[in-house]
Amino acid sequence: MAHNRPIEIPQQLRELAERNVEQIRTAHAQFMDAMVHASDTWLAALPSNEMTSGFKVVQERATQFAKQNAEACFAMASELANAKDIQDVLAIQSRYAQTQMQTYALQAQELGRLMVEASQSVQPRS
């Protein structure tokens, strides 16, 4: 069947795609490091209290999630660069979408819980 034929992508193009993914991964890591540094600097300028402590926990976890999600995206891009046929491409994309939707749901739940904890820590106690 015609739709099962391997994708005729030259090896040089596959290698170029891999290099591009690695360059983007490096640039993203540099961006994330700069963002974390800026956020840490901003938080350090605030007076230390329960509110900033709770916010710092949320910020750190959100940053970890952003890094994990970006890494999953880069891994998927690398897989796509090596796909053999259209069915392989569709399977990679489908697997990525399913996994990430589950991941996003769990991450949202955790961030929501952390936000509640942070807000409860600054509410006046009766």
Number of strands: 0
Radius of gyration: 21 Å
Spans where pLDDT lies below 50 across 5 or more residues: none
**What is the helix fraction of residues, given as a range?**
over 70%
- Helix and strand element order: HHH
What is the helix tally? 3
What is the general shape? Answer: elongated
* Class inferred from helices and paired strands: mainly alpha
Beta-strand proportion: under 5%
Query: What is the average per-residue confidence, as pLDDT, rounded to a whole number?
Result: 86
Give the SSE layout.
Blueprint lengths: L10 H35 L4 H32 L4 H37 L4
Helix pairs in contact: 1-2, 2-3
Could you write a compact summary of the structure shown?
The chain is an all-alpha fold. Helices cover 83% and strands 0% of the residues.
Quickly list its features.
126 residues, elongated, mainly alpha, single chain, 3 helices
